[in-house]
């Protein structure tokens, strides 16, 4: 069966997902939700989308009556995700929502609750959860190849350009680098270590307070402690380009991904040798797998459901609290 998807938010990432969907075997783009009529026309022509599957932000609740759409993929600025996802759920459609799923854990939990109530699935756009080299490391870890896991390092950053873009606007982004790119290290720490952290400490520096206003973080280092004794040490920044590295070490050996989360190809090796899994367009793989999760109840090796997203948002909240107070913050995930 085909998962019939409508994309909400026809921006740069929405366009990437639309292109990737062309190569999917189990998912296809059938509709759009946009506030810009000219973009809708363009996408209709490019992807052969019928007029009846085109909506705007005022009328998209009517998608409820559209039998030709199974799921809506929300790809708008972060602060809009919560309300939009809840409206999609109330319209009875499955929700795929981009990361960060919301701007804090309270909102994220509201999304989970709304989807549960509406009896629809909620999945977060964590494309790395389907990436073959990443999954090989998870498989090797589960098989004991690294021994008892004791350390993870996650470095996530890029130098943000346009000072006018929504990513630097607290109202729309909910924060700065942490929400946008640091979340890869947060999420990565959990799937690489294979556990949830129990405490957080964090430190912030801001070299450009004009570009990065109050509530918009530029660079934060943070540490996560795990119940089994493992530690993670991570960096989130909007000030450095080409910063994208995961490193996992256990009693027996290591795995490194460099780059770890870019659009690929991902490169990696372990103490046992190179990782040779072939590159597949992340979003193509993601959408085919999400189709299987939604339509066939498939259980992925690394989960991508709303509850997973809530955990990441709880860690984001705790990191901001640790930065503010300078204290260790306990986590209950
Ligand atoms: P973008 O600015 O290119 O696109 C955002 C879209 O939302 C635009 O088409 C814009 O018109 C629309 N929009 C609707 N309402 C808006 C409003 N009130 N204000 C501003 N824009 C509005 O951004 P993007 O890079 O496509 O990011 C969108 C989402 O996708 C973000 O949540 C981001 O974190 C996520 N994203 C995920 C990945 C990934 O690899 N998973 C990569 C990039 C972006």
UniProtKB/TrEMBL annotation:
Coiled coil: none annotated. InterPro entries: Gfo/Idh/MocA-like_OxRdtase_N, Gfo/Idh/MocA_domain, GFO_IDH_MocA-like_dom, Glc-Fru_OxRdtase_bac, NAD(P)-bd_dom_sf, TAT_signal. Gene3D superfamilies: Dihydrodipicolinate Reductase, domain 2 (3.30.360.10), NAD(P)-binding Rossmann-like Domain (3.40.50.720). Residues 137-255 form the GFO/IDH/MocA-like oxidoreductase domain. PROSITE patterns: TAT. Keywords: Oxidoreductase, Signal. One of its GO terms (molecular function) is oxidoreductase activity. SUPFAM superfamilies: Glyceraldehyde-3-phosphate dehydrogenase-like, C-terminal domain, NAD(P)-binding Rossmann-fold domains. Pfam families: GFO_IDH_MocA, GFO_IDH_MocA_C3. Residues 3-126 form the Gfo/Idh/MocA-like oxidoreductase N-terminal domain. Belongs to the Gfo/Idh/MocA family. This is Gfo/Idh/MocA family oxidoreductase. It comes from Pseudochryseolinea flava.
